[in-house]
Amino acid sequence: MSVKILGGMAKGSSLKVADNDLLRPTAVVLKRKLFDTYQDLENFIFLDLCAGAGTMGLEAWSRGVSRVFLVEKDFSIFKTLQANVQLMNVKYPVAVKERPIWAVKSEVVRWLAQYRDEVYLKLSVIDQQNHIIFFDPPYKMTELYKKVIEEQMLDGNWFLGRLWIEAESSNQREVASKIGRLQEKEEKVITCGDRYIFLANFSS
Known about the structure:
CATH topology: Rossmann fold
Distance between the termini: 40 Å
Number of helices: 8
Largest sheet: 7 strands, mixed
Number of strands: 9
Number of domains: 1
Order of helices and strands: EEHEHEHHEHHEHEHEE
Radius of gyration: 16 Å
Helix content: 25-40%
Low-confidence stretches: none
CATH architecture: 3-Layer(aba) Sandwich
Shape: globular
Strand content: 15-25%
Structural class: alpha/beta
CATH superfamily: Vaccinia Virus protein VP39
């Protein structure tokens, strides 16, 4: 199975998607709606948590973000992610050197805490605001919404960027209970069929 990049420098490039029950790539229509809403991604830093095959992070990279971190802990899925990053390295070596793509094999809660302490908090306010975190945990791991959003993102008011959360409509009530404190930061909700992406802006 493969998924094509929809826009930007790498438009049309086919990304591998592993045949794995944990993976649920963002629907094409939903992805198109999202990136039609945010077309200018230059100077943004994109963190794709629970990245899977990296399709969202690499779409963002293709559309101009300055750095991408793709975080995935499952070993078999991570191998597919590495192959997709290598494809970008082979096809666009100069661009990848200028706008790096990092594939990180790690548990997301631990990695985000480390990134916050060692990288994020040392950046300028502008660079902190120019962060986008995309978060789409596996369907059956809804406890990650609480661990990442409530226990990390909303703890200490340290994050000043944008948070994009994807979820299934069937999970909406459970997810909403985890992100309830984000309602005041809501920027937009993009829907397609039984999937939606909740967009929050922490800089406002």
